[in-house]
Amino acid sequence: MSLQLPAVDVPPQPWTGRFDGDGPRHRRWWQAVNQESQPGPAEAAGSQGAGRPAPSVRRPAALLGFASDEGVRRNQGRTGAAAAPAALRKALASLAFHLDRTVADIGDVVVSGQDLEAGQERLGEALAALLDAGHQTVVLGGGHETAYASYLGVSASRAVQTGRRLGVLNLDAHFDLRDEPLPSSGTPFLQMARAEADAGREFRYAVVGISEPNNTQVLFGTAGKLGVRYLLDEDCEADRVQDFVAAFLADIDVLYLTIDLDVLPAAVAPGVSAPAAYGVPLPVISAVCRQVARSGKLLHLDVAELNPACDIDGRTARTAARLVDTLLR
Ligand SMILES: N=CN[C@@H](CCC(=O)O)C(=O)O
Ligand SMILES: [Mn+2]
Ligand SMILES: [Mn+2]
């Protein structure tokens, strides 16, 4: 597939990482990104003959950065998430590459100053173009205002415009359903609910990992009125989460998955604006990612709320990179 590059603010920068050698069996992400094709695992293992490129059998992935923390600033959080796309690429770069799809880095949309809304529009336009060109899209956020930017792209895509039922699955300690005069990292899913109502569509929104003490009764009330399905963090045993996600997937055609890294325990994900005292264990979140990847319904995914300035030894970025890698398997 030839890649029509959508307009971004900062073009893709060179990827670098540990070098173990040339060839597919040594390959790491930094050596695979923006290459025309990668062999599948079978060829990489040497079973299809040396040197012959195999066609990629999966939808090509496209990475798009959203360098923004204006939403976090407006939401009274700890800013720093604008630096997250670069930190996420760095964490991805040295992972061994086991995917049987190509990965293109498209570059970054950058929110300059306080013009969050314009940045969300630009991200949405670039994302819709990538989706309609057949890519498995991945947005590297940004504060959780990233989610409304993602939604603009997903809702404008041919899949949704031609009537496929969209579901939004949020892995998050928070509902992010705040009713505020200005959009922020705390408002994206209420913005989506209103936009879906305006479009005459049902808003299908589910959240895994809600922390009861970190969401007010007003937010639970809004979730109730909107018919939001959710699981509390304390109820996130592996089997229960699997059943919850399976039931949600059964009611939709295409999924937008958004991972707010504060769904994870603070020890695993300290580098966020609002670290979780309790959190959902990483193996449970990773299992959700595998379940979603296997479902065949994943249209788009993003990772949000990484704040590299608050991270400890890059552990939050590394965890996020691992989840992105899992989702693209
Ligand atoms: N992105 C959302 N953030 C949370 C922050 C909560 C907090 O700072 O305690 C929210 O708005 O609910
Ligand atoms: Mn959150
Ligand atoms: Mn959030």
Automatic annotation (TrEMBL):
Chain sites annotated for binding Mn(2+) 2? D172, H174, D260, D262
Q: Which InterPro entries match?
A: HutG (IPR005923), Ureohydrolase (IPR006035), Ureohydrolase_dom_sf (IPR023696), Ureohydrolase_Mn_BS (IPR020855)
EC numbers for this chain: 3.5.3.8
Q: Do you know which CDD domains this protein is assigned to?
A: Formimidoylglutamase
Catalytic activity annotated for this protein? Answer: N-formimidoyl-L-glutamate + H2O = formamide + L-glutamate
UniProt enzyme class: hydrolase
| Pathway named in the protein's UniProt entry | Amino-acid degradation; L-histidine degradation into L-glutamate; L-glutamate from N-formimidoyl-L-glutamate (hydrolase route): step 1/1
Residue span of region Disordered: 1-56
| Keywords associated with the record | Histidine metabolism, Hydrolase, Manganese, Metal-binding
User: Binding of Mn(2+) 1: at which residues?
Assistant: H144, D172, D176, D260
Tell me how the cofactor is bound. Binds 2 manganese ions per subunit.
Q: Which cofactor does it need?
A: Mn(2+)
Q: What does this protein do?
A: Catalyzes the conversion of N-formimidoyl-L-glutamate to L-glutamate and formamide.
NCBIfam families according to UniProt: hutG
Q: Which family does it belong to?
A: Belongs to the arginase family.
Q: What is this protein called?
A: Formimidoylglutamase
Q: What is the lineage of its organism?
A: Bacteria, Bacillati, Actinomycetota, Actinomycetes, Micrococcales
Designated gene of the protein: hutG
